[in-house]
Amino acid sequence: MLGTTELFKAAQSFIEQAFVEMNKSPEETRDRINEISSEIQQTGTYVHTFEELEHGAKMAWRNSNRCIGRLFWDKLRIMDARAAESPTEVASFLLQHIENATNGGRIMPTITVFSPDSLRIWNHQLIRYAGYETTDGIIGDPASIAFTQVCEKLGWIGKGTDYDVLPLVIQLNNQEPEWFNIPDHSVIEVNLEHPEIPSFSSLGLKWYAVPIISDMSLEIGGIIYQAAPFNGWYMGTEIGARNLADTFRYNKLPQIAQLMGLDTHSETTLWRDRALVELNVAVLHSYKKAGVSIVDHHTAAMQFRSFEERESKSGREVTGDWTWLIPPVSPATTHIFHKSYSDDLRSPSFQYMDKAY
Ligand code: ARG
Predict the structure, then answer these.
(1) Rounded to 10 degrees, what is the CA torsion of 36, 37, 42, 46?
(2) 234 lines ligand 1 (CB under 6 A)
(3) Which one, 112, 222, 311, 338, has least CB within 10 Å?
């Protein structure tokens, strides 16, 4: 937490920038800054209005240097959950987030903001598959092994499949966390098939519809919201070139290559690359067919270019982390690859936190 002097400074600079963008008058801006100043003097902190929270969250998305999807920053939907007081209430807001954001497949970029301190959501994403280390190797998502063990210690028991949806784990005021199952009907998943390779579906691959990051904090005007889960929709490569392809994740390229009849004995056949492309084709095809929002990396890069143009017209510099903005498949086919970005951190922002467990 910031000292009151730093907090006021951060609040003032946020209000000054946000109020201009929100078309407020200089008088309104001055009045609000004075109000915040006395609130901080009396209580040591201050409370954002809904409008400030809404615009602040949008700015944080706009400032997310690693995100290629920022063209839509202004379309973010904000759920104000600052009044939630018990783990049960928090869980019900989170289930609502999952359902509203999923929206039957027409995914809505959404953020749910809880009261700044006291609450931690232990999940990395609200929907994520468990990972188990067994004597015959890893089952499920290797990236979830540590968190899955935490859930099991708390009393959760998974089915033991490759795609068990983990429970929500909610901790209030450093008390023992509570866990809540996510009902099956709240989670849309997409079974992967390939438009030209009929046997592809025999691999039994699938992924969930909505990535909802829940372990980053949202900083607005010096206030740090530790629980503020947010989502967009997937870019296909996140699933097809990372989650299902990385050797330290689901590692599916060898099986796909085999099914395609590729020679995997020599790297020079480029079997990895060929399998990778077909996996990515399958992801995009299957999500489209299932009516679940998704974007391919070429379209996403073009949208990012529009974002850059729009920002420049608004007199703002686009900051970015090149290493994250380039897609992991065919990066040099996008304009992003051929330019550079300043990775400066702007406020408001989303930030990593230390693990809660
Ligand atoms: N890369 C993460 C995953 O594969 C999701 C990160 C957020 N992605 C997004 N499109 N909003 O699960």
Answers:
(1) 30
(2) yes
(3) 338
For residue 50, count CB atoms less than 10 angstroms from its CB and return exposed for 0-12, middle for 13-18, buried for 19 or more: exposed
The rounded distance, in Å, linking the Cα atoms of 212 and 110 is 9
Q: Answer whether 243 contacts ligand 1 (Cβ < 6 A).
A: yes
Query: Cβ distance 276 to 241 under 8 Å?
Result: yes
- Ligand 1, closest atom to CA 239? 4
φ, ψ for residue 217, nearest 5 deg: -95, 155
How far, in Å, is the centroid of ligand 1 from the Cα of 191?
18
List strand residue ranges (DSSP E) for 158-227, in order: 168-172, 178-180, 189-191, 206-208, 212-213, 216-220, 223-225
Is the pTM here over 0.90, yes or no?
A: yes
Instruction: Please answer whether residues 227 and 213 qualify as being in contact, where contact means their C-beta atoms are separated by less than 8 angstroms.
Output: no
Q: Mean pLDDT in each 10-residue stretch from start to end of the chain (357 residues)?
A: 93 98 98 98 98 98 98 98 97 98 98 96 98 97 98 98 98 96 98 98 98 98 98 99 98 98 98 98 99 99 99 98 98 98 98 96
Pocket test for ligand 1, best of 234, 280, 299, 324 (most atoms within 8 A of CB): 234
Secondary structure of residue 349 in the 3-state scheme: strand
Which of ligand 1's atoms lies nearest the C-alpha of 232? 11
Give the integer Cα–Cα distance in Å for 339 and 319: 12
